[in-house]
Each structure stands twice: as structure tokens, then as C-alpha cells.
Amino acid sequence: VLIFLPGYDDIITLRDKIYSDLHYVAEHRAMIFTLHSQMQSSDQKRVFRPAPPGVRKIILSTNIAETSITINDVVFVVDCGKVKERTYDAITGVTHLKAGWISKASAIQRRGRAGRCRPGLCYHLYSRLRFNSFRRFQVPEILRVPIHELCLQAKLLAPPNAPIADFLAKAPDPPPFMVTS
């Protein structure tokens, strides 16, 4: 079972609730794994090992499991439809993680995690009406971060002596520079 949750705090809360019911864990012979971007890669690798016969593997994950990895023995996916993204508030000048709805593309990716090696099911914890209100794609991070961070990162990646604006203009979704003047 692969369960998509918005962030680390949500993962830990659900993990602790499952573990607090030791009867459930013992009766269902469950192994609980967490998966998020702040984990060491060695810890992430444990998720790929198959569970022993008769043991249910439950993976609590952020959107890291959407596209970057494939866990072959996932049969069921539970999708809450939320994601935490880094956003910048230009009025306060603060960057923070904000929970919001996923995109249609993310919902399709999450559904595709089920049944890679045998038939599977995906349970969406949102209505079709909600799904229809989702954006087609997530807003790219390049459009959600502070412009000064973006420019510093671009300076590190751009060829020497290349103007930052020219380098960023070549991005698939370049930032709107007119709002930065």
C-alpha cells in the first residue's frame, strides 16, 4: 500500500497513529515505511525490498514517489490529493511550505504507481468535481521561488559571462521579469 501525504509532519502523524494500535500492526502483520526527500538514500532503499510472505507493506510518502521511483510490489495507492510546495510571498518576503491541491498530471502519476507488476487499485480521497478543478500541471518551482534565489542559482549554472536574464529566458517556463523591476 502506497499512501501519498502532503508532507513530513503528516507522514509522522499517520505512522504514529498506526503504531499506536499495536493490535492492528500485529494482526495484519504490517511493516510501515516512510519516504520523503529528507531521508538518506540508504534509508530510502529499504522501501524497495519485498515484504516477507504474509506481511503487508505500508509506505507513507510525499510526492517523491510520484515520478522519481518505482516500487514494484505496490498494489494499492491512496491519494489524499494534497502536496506541500515551497512558495514565496512577495508581500512579506517569506518563503514557506504551503499545502495545496495537486495537479491533474500528479493525480495521474500517483494512480500509475499502483499495479506495476500485477493489477492494482487507486483510492482518491477527493471527488471528481474536485479533480476537475485541479490545474493541468503544477506551477513550476522556477515561478514559485524568490527571484534573488533564482538568479543566484542561475548564476551558478549559467555559462561564464552569460547574462542571467538570457539564461533564464531559455527555461521551459521562464519567470516573468517585468514584475521584478
TrEMBL record:
Record-linked CDD domains: SF2_C_RHA
Cross-referenced SUPFAM superfamilies: P-loop containing nucleoside triphosphate hydrolases
Matches recorded under InterPro entries: Helicase_C-like, P-loop_NTPase
Domain spans labelled Helicase C-terminal: 1-158
Single GO MF descriptor: RNA binding
Protein name as annotated: Helicase C-terminal domain-containing protein
Source species of the chain: Parasteatoda tepidariorum (Common house spider)
